[in-house]
Recover the amino acids of this structure.
């Protein structure tokens, strides 16, 4: 393989670091006589050939799982063929508890044949834990099983460390480093496909949590083993070794407790009440928890913008939209709210979902059985919907929030599993009516009549219409969401006489009423 010499370049760069929503942007000017300049806590510019990067994760919640990727990068068009690696990782086992280690995409895509890891603890260093991770591309030397690739282009994921973050509150706001560590000359190297060459770490970068930037370690490789500063010069006497790789160590930044409940900051970027926050919130009502990709627990807590203790509610969405447009003010962090509940009625008849005209909605979510393609009826609002394989989630709202009522949406389904409604002011709409059966209208019946009933929760119901003296009978089974429903009974083929009709619901008692059919 071609050997590459790295050239050190000295230059000056201005770094722009964002320090949070309550801080000003600062310009930091520094001179670095190296191939790499670190911009902030998550990115860097590198003109070197290869680098091993241990991911740095922000805002990790205590008591929750957190994964850290270990990846290999190539730069400036360079190519690296490797046949395996042997890496020794050290972490603070008081702060982090290893649950598992997953093979990376490179391993599975290239059909490598061997991957293993083992953990070791040291009684004299109680908080330190080591993980040795070893992977070999080809151990069988059997052509049918030869791995499919060895080449690293751009970047590849070597493996993923899965940690459980401690629930010990003394670690709040702390940064738990995850770094490579050397116990002797045989630690931390990649090797060539034929196994004859070893590629070692050339220089090392650590993360400074106070300055929120990386820094290059001094040339302390002369430090005796064990060491975090790389290979000792005495190891250079070993043949077939070449220092080609830069190391960017990482770790896990444990969240500060007072920043977990940053109401309105749903994307957790430390800037509350952005349009990006509102879009994530809207997408949640359509696609569910899958949109909470940053930190599900933290994002849920940040959604309680109306401070009523309930997260991810439609009332929170309406209040957030009103804050963004200047129609409402955000509640202070120590505010305890009790969201008002307003009454309102809805109707689902002939596939049309509607609410009474006195109820001015700000947002509506329907969960409907099957793959439904709804049609929007209401004016000045927009609709999003998504089928998850079993049910269709439908969300209707506007921005800025515009009050709407009456006929809202037409559905090609008769099963609505759940309904969430908020009025324009962000109040919760009660949609749990009393179980009841009304007298049919008109009565007596000539050709047809409407039978109205309500159910207190979604369930299967049956409506039976039978002649009191005679054999005529009609029965219909249907799934009904909570609310009011109207069934149109066509009596044109039934003889005149007195009838009774009975509503039977799975979770309720039977209700009976009577009607009269007269001669047509």
């Amino acid at each position: 393989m071609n050997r590459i010499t790295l050239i050190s370049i000295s230059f000056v760069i201005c770094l722009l670091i964002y320090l949070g929503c309550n801080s000003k942007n600062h310009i930091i000017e520094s001179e670095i006589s190296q191939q790499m300049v670190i911009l902030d806590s998550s990115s860097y510019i590198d003109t070197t050939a290869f680098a091993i990067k241990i991911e740095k994760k922000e805002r990790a919640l205590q008591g929750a799982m957190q994964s850290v990727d270990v990846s290999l990068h190539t730069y400036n068009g360079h190519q690296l063929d490797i046949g395996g690696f042997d890496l020794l990782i050290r972490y603070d086992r008081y702060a982090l508890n290893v649950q598992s280690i997953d093979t990376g995409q490179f391993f599975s895509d290239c059909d490598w044949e061997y991957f293993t890891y083992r953990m070791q603890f040291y009684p004299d260093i109680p908080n330190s834990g080591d993980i040795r991770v070893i992977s070999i591309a080809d151990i069988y030397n059997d052509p049918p099983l030869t791995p499919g690739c060895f080449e690293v282009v751009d970047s590849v994921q070597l493996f993923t460390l899965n940690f459980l973050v401690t629930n010990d509150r003394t670690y709040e706001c702390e940064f738990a480093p995850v770094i490579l560590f050397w116990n002797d000359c045989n630690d931390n190297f990649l090797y060539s496909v034929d196994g004859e060459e070893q590629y070692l770490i050339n220089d090392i970068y650590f993360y400074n949590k106070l300055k929120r930037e990386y820094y290059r370690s001094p040339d302390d490789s002369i430090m005796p083993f064990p060491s975090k500063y790389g290979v000792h010069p005495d190891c250079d006497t070993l043949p077939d070794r070449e220092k080609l790789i830069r190391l960017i160590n990482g770790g896990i930044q444990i969240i500060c407790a007072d920043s977990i409940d940053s109401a309105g900051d749903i994307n957790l970027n430390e800037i509350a009440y952005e349009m990006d926050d509102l879009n994530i919130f809207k997408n949640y009502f359509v696609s569910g928890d899958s949109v909470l990709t940053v930190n599900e627990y933290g994002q849920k807590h940040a959604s309680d913008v109306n401070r009523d203790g309930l997260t991810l509610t439609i009332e929170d969405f309406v209040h957030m939209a009103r804050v963004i447009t200047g129609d409402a003010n955000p509640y202070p962090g120590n505010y305890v709210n009790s969201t008002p509940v307003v009454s309102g009625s809805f109707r689902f008849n002939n596939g049309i979902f509607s609410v009474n005209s006195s109820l001015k909605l700000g947002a509506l979510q329907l969960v409907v059985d099957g793959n439904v393609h709804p049609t929007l009826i209401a004016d000045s609002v927009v609709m999003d919907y998504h089928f998850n394989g079993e049910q269709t989630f439908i969300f209707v709202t506007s921005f800025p929030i515009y009050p709407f009522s009456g006929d809202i949406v037409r559905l090609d389904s008769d099963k609505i599993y759940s309904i969430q409604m908020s009025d324009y002011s962000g109040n919760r709409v009660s949609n749990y009516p009393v179980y009841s059966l009304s007298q049919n209208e008109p009565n007596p019946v000539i050709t047809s009549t409407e039978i109205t009933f309500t159910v207190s929760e979604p369930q299967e119901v049956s409506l039976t219409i039978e002649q009191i003296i005679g054999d005529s009978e009609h029965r219909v089974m249907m799934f009904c969401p909570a609310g009011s429903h109207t069934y149109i009974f066509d009596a044109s083929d039934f003889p005149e006489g007195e009838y009774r009709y009975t509503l039977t619901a799975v979770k309720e008692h039977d209700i009976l009423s009577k009607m009269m059919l007269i001669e047509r």
